[in-house]
Backbone:
């Protein structure tokens, strides 16, 4: 088992990708299938907290997940959020989440013709995990097919156990916009929550501060944690992002309370590719691939890859483009780490 304890990580730096070449071979998944998780390799070394990375320098190692003291007391981000609200259809697509007994079915104010998702559900079956860490492709090369109301949330991440905050990479609009959202599930209406804050992923200031290349793709490193009190429901949650200029985590958003996702009983979380409005039976348009890496659970100050806990994550996909063979979900990703996935949609 590879338990990664924040604050006591060694200072060795691995080559980009941080993988053991003896275990990095990934079987090819045929359309509609999923590659085996058995070949995933753990992050062998982390970039120590406090490390600065110059603009234009690819990551030689991933930033270490934040220690609890850092996560809860990180300085606020100086990055100004976007003041203008997204178009109504982009927000509507995020509403009305209902998953009876863990089965996913999302309704929307603008019903999609054949909405499709793929990713991991995250659970608390074996432990009360106190947060999640992940590396997200920002996907600024993505363009969306018609109609104008097409929306893609990918990757989008919610910690299991009643987290207040979903960290969503949102792609929408004409011309297309690429934004990082803090979706607050502890405010707003039951089953809906509310869009709290958003940042422009194409903004030069944002990119120079928070975006670095990992495994050949522009990425951000995010974490969402809550204090270890014996329970994760009804607490304060902290959304952090790694700042490469100052060499540490900063806090983007905080929210406290009980989740309004209709899933408080199950404590369901997820890391996924989520589409609205642009797929349909026998219509699977090409979209640039996107994914996530190093997805890890927080527990008592330690960070543990989700792949160490097969009872606490479930791979899923639905919608005709996934079940019918138009798109493929790959996990693990070659050159990446434990808890990685990529949606092959081209």
Residues:
């Amino acid at each position: 088992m590879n338990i990664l304890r924040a604050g006591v990580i060694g200072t060795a730096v691995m080559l980009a990708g941080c993988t053991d070449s003896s275990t990095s071979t990934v079987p090819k998944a045929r359309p509609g299938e999923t590659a085996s998780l058995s070949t995933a390799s753990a992050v062998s070394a982390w970039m120590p907290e406090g490390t600065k990375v110059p603009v234009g320098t690819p990551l030689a190692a991933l930033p270490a997940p934040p220690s609890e003291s850092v996560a809860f007391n990180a300085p606020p981000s100086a990055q100004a959020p976007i003041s203008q609200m997204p178009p109504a259809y982009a927000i509507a697509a995020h509403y009305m989440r209902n998953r009876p007994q863990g089965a996913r079915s999302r309704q929307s104010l603008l019903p999609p013709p054949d909405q499709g998702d793929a990713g991991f559900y995250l659970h608390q079956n074996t432990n009360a995990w106190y947060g999640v860490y992940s590396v997200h492709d920002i996907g600024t090369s993505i363009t969306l097919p018609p109609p104008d109301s097409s929306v893609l949330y990918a990757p989008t991440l919610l910690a299991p156990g009643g987290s207040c905050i979903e960290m969503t990479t949102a792609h929408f609009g004409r011309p297309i916009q690429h934004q990082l959202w803090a979706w607050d599930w502890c405010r707003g209406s039951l089953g809906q929550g509310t869009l709290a804050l958003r940042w422009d992923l194409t903004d030069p200031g944002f990119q120079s501060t928070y975006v670095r290349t990992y495994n050949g793709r522009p990425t951000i490193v995010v974490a969402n944690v809550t204090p270890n009190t014996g329970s994760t429901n009804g607490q304060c949650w902290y959304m952090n992002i790694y700042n490469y200029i100052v060499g540490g985590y900063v806090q983007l958003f905080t929210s406290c309370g009980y989740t309004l996702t209709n899933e408080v009983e199950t404590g369901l979380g997820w890391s996924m590719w989520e589409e609205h409005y642009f797929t349909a039976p026998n219509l699977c348009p090409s979209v640039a691939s996107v994914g996530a890496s190093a997805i890890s659970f927080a527990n008592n100050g330690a960070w543990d890859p989700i792949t160490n806990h097969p009872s606490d994550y479930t791979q899923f996909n639905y919608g005709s483009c996934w079940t019918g063979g138009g798109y493929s979900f790959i996990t693990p990703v070659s050159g990446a780490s434990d808890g990685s996935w990529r949606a092959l949609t081209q």
In short: DSSP finds four helices and 19 strands in the chain. Confidence is low (pLDDT under 50) at residues 1-40, 96-112. The chain has one domain: 42-320. The first helix runs from residue 68 to 73.
